[in-house]
């Protein structure tokens, strides 16, 4: 009996998606890519899910496209187009936390970049080997990576194909923090719980305008924010609800500061 290619577990309103081809370092076969797309499309429509954590089983997050399929050594299923997978993950209205447990290589690096932010295990390593394989990126790496770490650093990674360790990735702003391997999922779950304590409607709008603004100029981004703020303010907000939220924020601040 075959193991499922993608494992999905849910605790309260947090879903954890685990790529499950550890024997192949979670290489992205067409079957796995199709399953990822199916899972994320379903999670987007599930009102019980507010945050998604994406990780990999074993030693890798994912090492990218299955080279055995690309080389014709094994048969491939009918595949989605590259744009489908990128759009399905990248356009999620719900926050996606990338829990980078190990190797995130080429197409795996691209999938990591589709997440809203990354937490890395000390074992995480990143590499863009498109130029070594002879494939041009098709899931946004050439555009997302320079915006995150700067174009000079992005060119260094993509033109050399060299590996990037977790600590350097953190110093460069690619990942938010590096934690011990055994603390990775605990850290991501706590951040996911923190996210779910915020106002869901407001959170969704903020994520949306950040994503839209990142893809345009500062001037246009400010206009996007202003329009969203005005639309949000038109909806009735009860004063006692605001007061309750303010009190909760003050309590949280005292607890974190203490």
Verbal overview:
This protein folds into 2 domains: 6-196, 2-enoyl-CoA Hydratase, Chain A, domain 1 (Alpha-Beta Complex), CATH 3.90.226; 200-257. The protein contains 12 helices and 10 strands. The protein has helices spanning 30-45, 67-70, 82-90, 107-114, 130-133, 141-149, 151-160, 166-171, 184-196, 200-214, 218-234, 239-257, and strands at residues 6-11, 14-19, 51-56, 60-62, 96-100, 103-105, 117-121, 125-127, 163-165, 177-179. Strand 1 (6-11) and strand 2 (14-19) form a beta hairpin. Helix 1 runs parallel beside helix 3, helix 6 (141-149) crosses helix 7 (151-160) and helix 10 (200-214) packs antiparallel against helix 11. The longest helix has 19 residues, at 239-257. The mean pLDDT is 89.
In short:
With 258 residues, the protein is an alpha/beta fold. Helices cover 50% and strands 17% of the residues. The chain is globular and about 55 Å long.
Indicate the topology.
Elements: E1 6-11, E2 14-19, H1 30-45, E3 51-56, E4 60-62, H2 67-70, H3 82-90, E5 96-100, E6 103-105, H4 107-114, E7 117-121, E8 125-127, H5 130-133, H6 141-149, H7 151-160, E9 163-165, H8 166-171, E10 177-179, H9 184-196, H10 200-214, H11 218-234, H12 239-257
Parallel strand pairs: 2-3, 3-5, 4-6, 5-7, 6-8, 7-10
Antiparallel strand pairs: 1-2, 8-9
Helix pairs in contact: 1-3, 6-7, 10-11
């Amino acid at each position: 009996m075959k193991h499922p290619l993608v494992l999905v577990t849910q605790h309260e309103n947090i879903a954890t998606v685990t790529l499950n081809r550890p024997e192949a370092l979670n290489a992205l076969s067409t079957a796995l890519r199709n399953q990822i797309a199916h899972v994320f499309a379903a999670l987007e429509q599930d009102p019980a899910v507010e945050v998604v954590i994406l990780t990999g089983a074993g030693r890798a997050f994912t090492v990218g496209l299955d080279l055995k399929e690309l080389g014709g050594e094994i048969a491939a299923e009918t595949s989605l187009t590259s744009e489908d997978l990128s759009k399905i993950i990248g356009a999620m209205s719900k926050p996606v936390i990338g829990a980078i447990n190990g190797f995130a290589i080429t197409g795996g690096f691209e999938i990591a970049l589709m997440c809203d932010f990354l937490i890395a295990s000390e074992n995480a390593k990143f590499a863009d080997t498109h130029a070594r394989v002879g494939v041009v990126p098709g899931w946004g790496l050439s555009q997302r990576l320079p915006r995150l770490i700067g174009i000079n650093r992005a060119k260094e990674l993509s033109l050399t194909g060299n590996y990037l360790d977790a600590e350097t990735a953190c110093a460069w702003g690619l990942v938010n923090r590096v934690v011990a391997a055994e603390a990775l999922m605990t850290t991501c779950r706590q951040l996911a719980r923190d996210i779910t304590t915020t106002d869901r409607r407001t959170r969704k709008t903020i994520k949306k305008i950040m994503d839209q603004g990142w893809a345009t100029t500062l001037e246009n981004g400010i206009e996007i924010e202003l329009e969203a703020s005005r639309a949000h303010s038109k909806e009735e907000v009860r004063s006692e609800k605001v007061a309750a939220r303010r009190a909760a924020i003050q309590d949280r601040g005292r607890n974190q500061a203490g």
